[in-house]
């Protein structure tokens, strides 16, 4: 059936709601911003769907090499939107996890740029990224035990693998937050910078990553994830398969040729 044209005057039509997740292409990076500052960027069903779409945008465009996740209004994310959850909304997407991210397999590097609070699921979104840039006055915490819950969006699984067990258990069992400065000392954050400078620093870091071969970056991520909890013989076998695929790629030849010719390589991702 033909679509009936909308004859309502433009000034009388309701405006499209502003997205809760914004994306901006900056060079070869995709800046993904959680934009619900009035709710401290808490994650509800809409945020999860929109964040999953943003990750798909990153994955599908070969011109994009790195994703950067941050939050608007001086807060990274307060985690799960409890009001939405009580109303029956789920902040999870089947197969993709909390916020559409925590169980998503991403071939391209992700950097979390954390300002302000990264609490509960917000901290878990950051842990799902490959690198973390934190403001010195940021706050990281997994307070779920204070509400009778556990950090089920990856916090209880990932944090003990990222930092010493006893330190991770202190955060998980007390539910108390730590500062960005302390997160850097613990090894949670790769860079600790003054407040307001995390996105700029993340973009600089992303440019350094993007200068490398995209196939190699994806292979590093795949091998690192495969080796996590896998016996070494199986991990080395998986690594050999990745190395064979890389050795047959045009990018490997380009990398060697560029080195011999003393010039910057021109990656093609194949």
From TrEMBL:
Residues 1-10 have a biased composition (Polar residues). CDD domains: crotonase-like. PROSITE patterns: ENOYL_COA_HYDRATASE. Transmembrane segments: none annotated. Residues 1-24 are annotated as: Disordered. It comes from the Bacteria. One of its GO terms (biological process) is fatty acid beta-oxidation. Keywords: Lipid metabolism, Lyase. Pfam families: ECH_1. GO terms for molecular function: lyase activity. Belongs to the enoyl-CoA hydratase/isomerase family. NCBIfam families: PRK08252.1. This is Enoyl-CoA hydratase. It comes from Streptomyces caniferus. The lineage of its organism: Bacteria, Bacillati, Actinomycetota, Actinomycetes, Kitasatosporales.
């Amino acid at each position: 059936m033909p679509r009936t044209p909308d004859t309502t005057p433009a000034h009388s039509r309701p405006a499209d709601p502003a997205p809760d997740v914004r994306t901006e292409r900056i060079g070869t990076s995709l800046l993904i911003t959680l934009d619900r500052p009035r709710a401290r960027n808490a994650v509800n069903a809409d945020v999860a769907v929109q964040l999953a779409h943003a990750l798909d945008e990153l994955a599908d465009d070969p011109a994009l090499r790195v994703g950067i996740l941050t939050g608007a209004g001086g807060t990274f994310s307060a985690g799960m939107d409890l009001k939405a959850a009580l109303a029956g909304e789920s902040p999870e997407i089947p197969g993709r996890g909390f916020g559409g991210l925590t169980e998503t397999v991403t071939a391209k590097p992700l950097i979390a740029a954390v300002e302000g609070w990264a609490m509960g699921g917000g901290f878990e979104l950051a842990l799902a990224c490959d690198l973390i840039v934190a403001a010195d006055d940021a706050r990281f915490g997994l307070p779920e035990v204070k509400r009778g819950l556990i950090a089920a969006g990856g916090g209880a699984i990932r944090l003990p693998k990222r930092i010493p067990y006893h330190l991770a258990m202190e955060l998980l069992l007390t539910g108390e937050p730590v500062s960005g400065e302390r997160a850097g000392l613990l090894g949670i954050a790769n860079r600790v910078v003054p407040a307001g400078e995390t996105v700029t620093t993340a973009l600089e870091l992303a440019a350094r990553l993007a200068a490398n071969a995209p196939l190699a970056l994806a292979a590093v991520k795949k091998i690192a994830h495969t080796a996590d909890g896998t016996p070494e013989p199986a991990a080395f076998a998986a690594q050999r398969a990745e190395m064979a695929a890389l050795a047959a790629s045009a990018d490997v030849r380009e990398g060697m040729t560029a080195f011999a010719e003393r010039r910057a390589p021109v990656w093609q991702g194949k």
